[in-house]
Write a structure and sequence with these properties.
By secondary structure, the protein is an alpha/beta fold. It has one domain: Spore Coat Polysaccharide Biosynthesis Protein SpsA, Chain A (Alpha-Beta Complex). The chain is 27% helix and 25% strand. Helix 5 packs across helix 6. The chain starts with a strand and ends in a 12-residue tail after the last helix.
Length: 312
């Protein structure tokens, strides 16, 4: 069984100032998604599904199919691609969209758009985040071990000190889990950084207080492992979400909310998988030079070839 990689690439890049999904950051113009797909193929994945917006779907699909036309899976078969769109009006029957709403319904809604495209265990990632080779290996192994499972999902947790920014505090969802490594909660912390006294702290979003964190605490960077039964479970929760929020202009249906609802209801368990990889990504234009430098270093030390793919 070859898992599928589901890439959330529908973000408009408003804070970044352009389409991050298309920005060449590697030594030979590679995008962050290029590296994720390279790592996924090496970890035994067989298909990539992109969630995009309709307005740039054609451009994205043309670029992707040309760039990866020669990429083979580990068994020698061609890497498969599929594109699905996320639009704000793609909601269940019986609901009337508020005409003033301008953006789609969040990451969990985006995942639901792929329900007809995925029939095997799959891994969800952000298109503008770098997760590292080990993370894809860990996620792929989990998927293969859960080919016939239902009601058990997983989150790949990154050590907090492997996700910090060089330019200031960041927001991170700190994972809480039990003795069986099952997720019990994700608590958002803001302004996470090493303070002047050398102690890692973050502002707890629930208490509002600044709490000490451990550098090796695991946090969510939106890398999830699901089996196909997740789609039906999440769709049911989305209906309840819309019943309460259909007239809201900015409320969004996020993956952590969907998983937390299932966990709290006892209908699903979520494994917490630690990874030694370092995460990095681009949110603002100011992040770009540091990311370019990191990819250059990874290429210079032989972690990745350059170019990643044959140019045709």
């Amino acid at each position: 069984m070859k898992p599928t990689l589901l890439v959330l690439a529908a973000g408009m890049g408003s804070r970044y100032g352009g389409l991050k999904q298309m920005d060449g950051l590697g030594p030979s113009g590679e995008t962050i998604i290029d590296y994720s797909i390279y790592d996924a193929v090496q970890a035994g994945f067989g298909k990539v599904v992109y969630i995009v917006r309709e307005y740039f779907r054609e451009q994205m699909e043309q670029t992707v199919r040309q760039k990866y036309s020669s990429v083979k899976c580990l068994d020698g078969s061609p890497l498969e691609f599929q594109f699905v769109t996320q639009e704000l009006d793609k909601i269940p029957e019986g609901f009337t969209l508020n005409p003033e709403r301008q953006k789609p319904w969040g990451t969990a809604h985006a995942v639901l758009m792929a329900a007809q495209a995925i029939h095997e265990p799959f891994v969800v990632i952000n298109g503008d985040d770098f997760y590292g080779k080990e993370s894809f290996r860990i996620a792929g192994d989990w998927c293969r071990a859960h080919e016939n499972s239902k009601g058990v999902y997983a989150i790949v947790g990154f050590e907090v000190d492997h996700t910090l920014s060089e330019t200031g505090g960041v927001s991170r969802g700190i994972c809480a889990y039990d003795a069986q490594n099952h997720l019990t909660d994700v608590v958002e912390h803001h302004n996470v950084m090493f303070d002047a006294d050398g102690v890692l702290r973050g502002d707890n979003s629930i208490t509002g207080e600044r709490h000490e964190l451990q550098p090796k605490d695991l946090c969510s960077m939106n890398m999830w492992c699901f089996t196909p039964d997740y789609f039906k479970a999440s769709a049911d929760i989305f209906v309840n979400f819309l019943q309460a929020n259909i007239n809201e202009l900015k409320k969004e249906y996020y993956i952590p909310y969907a998983v937390d609802t299932m966990v709290k209801a006892g209908t699903a368990a979520c494994d917490v998988l630690g990874t030694p990889s370092h995460w990095f990504g681009v949110t603002f234009k100011e992040d770009r030079p540091a990311v370019v430098a990191k990819f250059a270093q990874l290429a210079a030390t032989g972690v990745y070839p350059t170019p990643l793919y044959e140019k045709r």
